[in-house]
Amino acid sequence: MNPDQATIQAAHENLDAHVREIIHWHFSPETGSPFWLDWAKKAGWNPATEIKSFADILRFPHFQDEWLRDLPNEVWVPKKYQGRPFNVFETGGTTGMPKQRIGWDDYKTDYTEFSEKLSDAHFPKGQHWLMVGPTGPRRLRLAVEHLANVRGSSCYFIDLDPRWVKKVIGKKEFEQARAYMDHVVDQAVLILKNRKISGMFTTPKLLEAMGEKINLYEAGIRGVFCGGTTMAPQYVRFIVEEVLENRIGFYPTYGNTLMGLAASVPLRPEDNFSITYYAPQPRAVLRVVDPNKTEQVKNYGEWGRVELTTLTKEFFMPRFLERDEALRREPRGPYAWDGVAEVRPFGAMEKNIVEGVY
Amino acid sequence: MTLAHIPALRRGRAYESLDQVQITDHRNGTPLVTISQVNAGIIRKDLARIGESRAALKKLTTAQLLDISAKAGELFLNGTLPLGDKGHTQSARQYIETLSATSGLPYVMVRRNMAKIHHALTNLKTVLNGLTRGLDLGILDHGFGEQFGTPVSYYPATQALGLVMPSNSPAVNSLWLPAIALKMPVIIKPGREEPWTPLRLIYAFIAAGCPAEAFGFYPTDHEGAAEILKSCGRALIFGDKATTDRYANNPAIQIHGPGYSKILLGEDAADRWPEYIDLMASSIADNGGRSCINASAIVTPRHAAEIAEALAKKLGPIVPLPATDDNARLSGFANVKMAEYIDGAIEQDLQKPGATDVTAKYRNGPRKVIFEGGMYLRPTIVLCDSFAHPLANREFLFPYASVVQVPQSEMLKQIGPSLVVTAITKDAAFTEQLLESPLIERLNLGPISTMNISWDQPHEGNMFEFLYKRRSIGRA
Questions:
Q1: What is the structure's pLDDT at B423?
Q2: A157 touching chain B per CB within 8 A
Q3: Across residues B51-65, what is the average pLDDT?
Q4: Closest by alpha carbon to B235, among B173, B295, B182, B186?
Q5: Cross-chain CB nearest to B39 (options A212, A235, A272)
Q6: Would the N or C end of chain A have less CB density within 10 A of its end CB?
């Protein structure tokens, strides 16, 4: 089940080669983006020649998320993409000026790859999908539709605005939050009753609420692809056993606008419903680092902060510290690199955090 | 053997969650048990099938359920019953030991609480007679019948009784016991430090022949508790004022908050106050001062300072004793932060003019003490110059009372809502005023401890009227 050392070594080498190619791309005047070319000038060293492997990425400081809020999007356009309109995607549920990431084809690449991980029994090709969750300016909306299309399917959408939910819950207006959730769920149930849907993307809380209003299996659902919130083992078990009644395929994912999509490995009995995700390496790398010494990774089985490095021709983002913590897990087939497990908001055990509402 | 594990009970079936907490000995932190925690979604899912639980109970007659309740009472008091799902059992002695260790109640108080629960279960027929005012209980089996020459019919107001239980004192569980004989499933969220009593009662009922489906036992979080309150149709909640105020206007939820119970001395009795000092002291301090029926204020038209002094002399020297000591009168605080909060709140309010901690000089030390590793609060009597002082109408989870001097003519205007009032007076006019007062739930006329309650006269809410509604009926 676990990959052998040779496979792990090959994945390392593949990553290092990919790092060299991507760094060269972003820091060469013929292909690079204004932001990184300018950054290199100020930094006084040349990543294009000096970065040889992923280990060298530690020479970059942590990526500042303010850059994605404060700078015009054009600074991120690699020269080779100039003149081609970009998509603008915004991150999750925070209020104020959102972080924006521009892109062209990355989301399609991520979701085309993800399609390979879905079983045809759970997501039959050619049958319809439903997405119930944040659409709006989010990458997820186009991505899920692309995923459905790749599988020969069309997708229906019900929107949920997580910024509104967070605002309402932040003000302790729980009844309003509940009413909004009911509004979203009612729309989804209406579609499920009137259209033939077999695959669904949603969030666990919405899935739970839909399951209370309609029997999902009898409504035709065979597979659910879920993400967007903490899923502790007992909650996963609840979803699998009680909401999906052990009859519907469950595909938890961890992802965001900046990374793409980390898929989970299928649960084994010995996992005790603890989900481990693997980044779409080499396009993105997740490390579980010591929050106080972020150059160091934690040992396997230990909690640490999640650090993301994105390495595509469209976007380079080194060492971005996510607002999440996770357990570091060993490589597990078909992935020959580290996994992150039981992802939850950073510091979740110390304070109450408004999350997981949508 | 491994540590015992308390599962959730989902319509009687054990459910071991991956999410578990440990309950420890309040004195030394030794883990005593792990308890499965469930999320609100599981409760919602089970409540969707609660009709099956009620159907299981309805197969038995009320008379059979009364027999089962009586048997359960004996098993609860003396039996060795299952404990959790790992093959553990619990004798009566082990129940006393573990409950004492996690809640801080000394053995002697646990035993007294056990006796109360046993009494309620073995005398349930009398209790139901009081609650239903002599209704032929066969009417509940058939749905209709005749009483005092009139056709009567009762229908259930809900399919289950929800209970969000406290940790302060085991005897509060006696409030839900009639529900089983009334054919109503119970859905219980136990108090964090006191899963023992509701669990032992459930196992006792099942061992006595009650259908297991009648019981839901859900250790859960705030969301789960709110779900029980919202979805059960009828529910009881125990808690402080802030908690219970949220549900004050919901007729489906019966609230059990602070009691603000009091002893009133009439003009005709005030000069004989020394005769009643023992009664006052026991009303304040019995059961470790943890009950809502403990007196939290002594109201007198004269001699307030002397009464406070005498009570302080009697209660002030009380110190914590080992849990096994039959003379133990104080309970440890499993929730240490609660003790710190109470001590801090009293000290803060004592800074405001008009109140004196009369017990201070008899304590020879601080109110908050550590004994054998546990935290305790020693009895406190505060003399207040009026009900306007913030310490005059307060209730805390330890032997605490204020003594306030108020003219008899002003008493009923000032005391506010009171769960129990013991009024020591023979004044006919004052007695009439007391009988008229809407602020008093239970009224004791004469020197009766506030801690005395009658099971056939509920001092707070009538379970039968809460669970059943009368309908008009005609039958051709």
A1: 97
A2: no
A3: 97
A4: B186
A5: A235
A6: N
Which pLDDT tens digit goes with each residue over B68-106?
A: 999 999 999 999 999 999 999 999 999 999 999 999 999
Identify whether the C-beta of residue B5 lies closer than 8 Å to the C-beta of residue B16: yes
For residue B123, give the nearest of B185, B57, B67 by alpha carbon: B67
Please give the average per-residue pLDDT across B24-33, as a whole number.
Answer: 93
Task: Give the C-alpha separation, B197 to B166, whole Å.
Answer: 11
In angstroms, the CA A165 to CA B247 distance is: 25
Q: Tell me the C-alpha distance between A115 and B171, whole Å.
A: 59
CA distance A126 to B13: 42
- Give the side-chain half-sphere CA count within 13 A for A233: 18
Count interface pairs A-B at CB distance under 8 A: 25
Interface of A with B in 268-297 (CB under 8 A): 272-273
Q: Does A213 touch chain B (CB under 8 A)?
A: no
Q: Does B134 touch chain A (CB under 8 A)?
A: no
Yes or no, beta carbons of A238 and B44 under 8 Å apart: no
Q: What is the pLDDT of residues B191-209, one digit of tens each?
A: 988 999 999 999 999 999 9
Nearest to A237 among B18, B37, B45 (CB): B18
Q: How far apart are CA A198 and CA B52, in angstroms?
A: 32
Chain B residues 31-50 within an 8 A CB cutoff of chain A: 37, 39, 41-42, 44-45, 48
Distances (CA, A) of A149 to A146, A174, A255: 5, 37, 20
Quick check: B29 contacting A, CB < 8 Å?
no
A245 contact B CB<8A: no
Q: Does the interface predicted TM-score (ipTM) exceed 0.95?
A: no
